[in-house]
Structure to design on (212 residues):
């Protein structure tokens, strides 16, 4: 498909075939998750499930992939429609909360799970389940001008940034895009080469650091 021409030229047809077969779950469809889904599908990922309980609000437009015409829609369903328009790929949209009761079902059969949730309770649930099931899980997170992409091994669930609405704190769009690009590349290296690498990034000095 010509939509993936440049990725195929860069990574090779075998890599595109393998990415097309990979089973991916993205937990969270906010600032990080929405851009991540968009990016992964453009890389050639075809089997993707996204889990998020929220609807699009006007204040999401600046930092998330959605536009003003989508305000009020379920985030997962808006992403599903967007991905299909872009590439013809129909992702699985799950517009509900991840819970103890459904975590096994919603994360089933994944070759890689992404945690982009914005609250500690949901991150802890993903962390514990993936550890117990020995599933590959990559956590993406941001705070102030810092962001990281860290595999489940050795990952520590951070405390919530603020009480109340997690959207009510300063968040730079460029930081989000850097972390999404960094996390996407880390995940592709894992899916194609089996490598697990942890990196952090600070926006103020544009510094990328390899983490233990």
């Amino acid at each position: 498909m010509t939509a993936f021409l440049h990725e195929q030229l860069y990574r090779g047809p075998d890599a595109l075939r393998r990415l097309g077969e990979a089973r991916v779950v993205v937990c969270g469809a906010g600032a990080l998750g929405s851009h991540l889904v968009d990016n992964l599908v453009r890389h050639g990922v075809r089997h993707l499930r996204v889990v998020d309980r929220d609807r699009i609000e006007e204040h999401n437009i600046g930092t998330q992939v959605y536009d003003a015409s989508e305000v009020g829609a379920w985030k997962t369903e808006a992403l599903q429609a967007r991905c299909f328009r872009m590439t013809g790929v129909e992702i699985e949209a799950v517009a509900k909360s991840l819970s103890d009761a459904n975590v096994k079902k919603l994360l089933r059969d994944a070759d890689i799970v992404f945690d982009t949730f914005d609250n500690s309770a949901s991150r802890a649930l993903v962390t514990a389940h993936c550890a117990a099931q020995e599933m590959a899980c990559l956590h993406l997170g941001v705070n102030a001008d810092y962001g990281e992409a860290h595999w489940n091994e050795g990952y520590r669930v951070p405390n919530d940034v603020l009480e109340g609405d997690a959207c009510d704190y300063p968040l730079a769009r460029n930081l989000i895009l850097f972390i999404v690009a960094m996390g996407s590349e880390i995940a592709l290296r894992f899916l194609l080469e089996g490598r697990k690498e942890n990196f952090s990034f600070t926006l103020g000095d544009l510094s990328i650091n390899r983490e233990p």
